[in-house]
Automatic annotation (TrEMBL):
SMART domains: 7TM_GPCR_Srsx. One of its GO terms (cellular component) is plasma membrane. The chain crosses the membrane at residues 35-60, 72-98, 110-131, 152-172, 192-214, 303-322, 342-361. Keywords: Cell membrane, G-protein coupled receptor, Membrane, Receptor, Transducer, Transmembrane, Transmembrane helix. It is a multi-pass membrane protein. This is 5-hydroxytryptamine receptor 1E. Its main location: membrane. Pfam families: 7tm_1 (PF00001). InterPro entries: GPCR_Rhodpsn, GPCR_Rhodpsn_7TM. Gene3D superfamilies: Rhodopsin 7-helix transmembrane proteins. GO terms for molecular function: G protein-coupled receptor activity.
Length: 379
């Protein structure tokens, strides 16, 4: 529809018949109104992405309770997504609204490189966050000693290096007209090897790793749930025997809830088992244990929902774009400009969704956001 409108506008000055002018004028009005709506929506998405990721960065930097290695990875993800909103999305809005590139060749090269680097880095951040959570749940005691700010910095640095190596190669062979102004600023698909290399490194391999890690996290959690149920049954039997032998309601309680969420991670189980010795009455102890089990079950379901949302949002936002890129590189598909822009912005939206998914379900982040809002009101 947009292509048809733009053709009508272009052919207008070549028509000498005055009776055709009103039709061309109406086409231009419809085109302009539609573009204004599109630009407004895209600007709103950009603003929200910048504000929400900025709030996450500020909350982590100003809240001492959030100064944890797992949150440093989330903060780095927020910085990357903020760069997408600040450096990549505005130029895309300008390009879409003008329907041609008007910022010159040098800026075009910089924009394409930043686009590929920041978006790839955002995706790889999701991969290292999943890896961090996998280690935390499967090697809780061992990884707790290794989980440090330095280790988080190494992981972040590795992500940026990989992202740069994926996005830099086209600069060595990308050809632009030496004279005149360029009209298009797009990723060329003239090197099939690089298309396969970049799509595998930026999305397909990270997606497979993320799916494997989160499936193993789920299986590990499921195993611990079963152990918790078994220990609860044995504990109940030992209570009865102790009560009959000792003549008092003495019990050693060793309970753990796999999804006791740590302050630093809303989808991870607690890395510590809650071991204590209590001397309550038998009825009170049983009631407390049942209440604890209900809380555990609720948190387990919540954690499963969060994992599903994280995986679902990531795949929905990025799979269509990278599938299109691979098919274009294989010369199987020639998408329209409208479809390409739509799939590109669907990927950009992941930078808006990430901070919502990784912080909204965490009570510590909620409190930090409330403090930021109160400071703003006082100011």
């Amino acid at each position: 529809m947009m292509d048809m409108d733009s053709e009508g506008i272009t052919s207008g000055p070549n028509v000498t018949n005055c009776s055709s002018a009103p039709a061309d004028t109406l086409q231009a009005v419809r085109f302009t109104d539609g573009m204004v709506a599109v630009v407004f929506v895209l600007c709103l998405l950009t603003l929200l992405t910048a504000l929400i990721n900025g709030a996450v960065i500020l909350a982590i930097c100003t809240t001492k309770k959030l100064h944890l290695p797992a949150n440093y990875l989330i903060c780095s993800l927020a910085v990357t997504d903020f760069l997408v909103a600040f450096l990549v999305m505005p130029a895309s809005i300008l390009y879409i609204s003008m329907e041609r590139w008007s910022l010159g060749q040098v800026v075009c090269e910089m924009w394409l490189s930043l686009d590929m680097t920041c978006c790839t880095c955002s995706i790889l951040h999701l991969c290292v966050i999943a890896l961090d959570r996998y280690w935390a749940i499967t090697k809780a005691i061992e990884y707790a000693r290794k989980r440090s700010a330095r280790r988080a910095a190494v992981m972040v640095g590795t992500v940026w290096i990989i992202s740069i190596f994926i996005s830099i190669p086209p600069l060595f062979w990308r050809q632009r007209p030496s004279t005149g102004r360029i009209q298009q600023c797009i990723i060329e698909h003239d090197h099939l090897g690089y298309t396969i290399y970049s799509t595998l490194g930026a999305f397909y391999i990270p997606m497979i790793i993320i799916l494997i890690l989160y499936s193993r996290i789920y299986n590990a959690a499921k195993t611990l749930y079963q152990k918790r149920g078994s220990s609860r049954h044995l504990s109940g039997r030992s209570m009865g025997s102790q009560n009959s032998v000792l003549g008092q309601n003495f019990r050693v309680s060793h309970t753990f809830c796999v999804s006791d969420l740590s302050n630093s991670d809303p989808t991870l189980p607690s890395e510590k088992f809650n071991a204590n010795i209590r001397v309550p009455s038998f009825e009170t102890d049983v009631d407390g244990q049942d209440e604890k089990n209900q809380i555990c079950t609720t948190r387990e379901r919540k954690a499963a929902r969060i994992l599903g949302l994280i995986l679902g949002a990531f795949i929905v936002c990025w799979l269509p774009f990278f599938l299109k890129e691979l098919l274009v590189g294989l010369r199987v598909l020639r998408p329209s400009r409208l479809l390409s822009d739509l799939l590109t912005w669907l990927g950009y939206i992941n930078s808006l969704v990430n901070p919502l998914l990784y912080t909204s379900f965490n009570d510590d982040f909620k409190l930090a956001f409330k403090k930021l809002l109160r400071r703003k009101e006082q100011a």
